[in-house]
Design brief:
Layout: H1 3-15, H2 28-47, H3 49-53, H4 62-87, H5 93-101, H6 119-139, H7 145-173, H8 177-196, H9 208-213, H10 221-239, E1 249-251, E2 256-258, H11 264-274, H12 278-291, H13 293-314
Antiparallel strand pairs: 1-2
Bound molecules: benzoyl coenzyme A.
Amino acid sequence: MNIHDLEKSFQDKIDREIKIEPKDWMPEAYRKTNLRQISQHAHSEIVGMLPEGNWISRAPSLKRKAILIAKVQDEAGHGLYLYSAAETLGTSRDQMIEDLHSGKAKYSSIFNYPTLTWADMGAVGWLVDGAAILNQVMLCRTSYGPYARAMVRICKEESFHQRQGFETLLVLSKGTAEQRAMCQDAINRWWWPSLMMFGPKDSESTNSDQSMKWKIKRKTNDELRQQFVDMIAEQIKLLDMTLPDPDLKWNEERKHYDFGEINWEEFWNVVKGNGPCNKQRLAARNKAHDEGAWVRAAALAYAQKRADRKKVKVA
Ligand code: BYC
């Protein structure tokens, strides 16, 4: 088959909803786009452990601490499934991790904001995991098989994360005046960065058109963002709190909520490495990697010893 026929049969497969698997022929650009997105996604899960990890030692009760530890461990697991999915596209985990640590690879802008109070754990769970899950439910149907399968498992855990975040805020919202103020303050600080998680506006999104044709993405950045606003604008009523947007208003004609303009300058600044915590996050990841070198060396030495022992037994 010539390249034209290969590309045609590849697109046919996508159109017929047949998953693309690692050993199948794929256009180089499809491989690269998936690798870019899956590795960015994996890095987001790993860096995303840091803002929450910050509160493990200060959680207000044993129960809250246990829940938070479990959640942060889940994020580590998500990162590992995703690195494995990305490796099937022909890159090594070491290379991906080096790209993250050198600042070459991107990860979600949201994790470059600080977690200042306990209420931030609720806001991160409700808003950040809430935004992530909308995007990830769509990705369960993405065209690349290993990515789609990783997402099914991740979504199950993510929906628990969102509910625990909402419940954390619900308790605070029914508490003292100080607790209510802390809850509102966390919502105010996390609202706009959560909207930015969906990426630039469709008109500025460089990858969307092609990713939609290849069914890597099934909904555009703006479609998912609107779905998120519509969901949260209703849920916030149960908390008896407000969203920090004077332009948020139900539009009867569109059957959607209208909302204010996102500060895109802030978004791009954070993406380019100049957000409030970018440097801190990369420094923390690099430090953890350096300090874990002896664990990796010990694990490799142990694996080698076992393999050598097996060889001797067989002989
Ligand atoms: N932050 O063409 P576009 C979690 C970049 S973690 C930074 O629209 P695309 C959790 C984009 O990469 C879940 N960069 O891109 C963990 C592109 O740059 P390059 C995180 C962003 O890929 C711990 C450029 O802007 N979820 O749940 O079609 C604790 C143009 O954008 C961002 C995922 O990673 C951003 N927000 O669409 C708690 C989902 N947005 O690469 C929770 C997987 C855009 O061309 N990713 N950029 O240089 C995706 O679905 C898509 O990659 C996006 C962007 C929708 C994010």
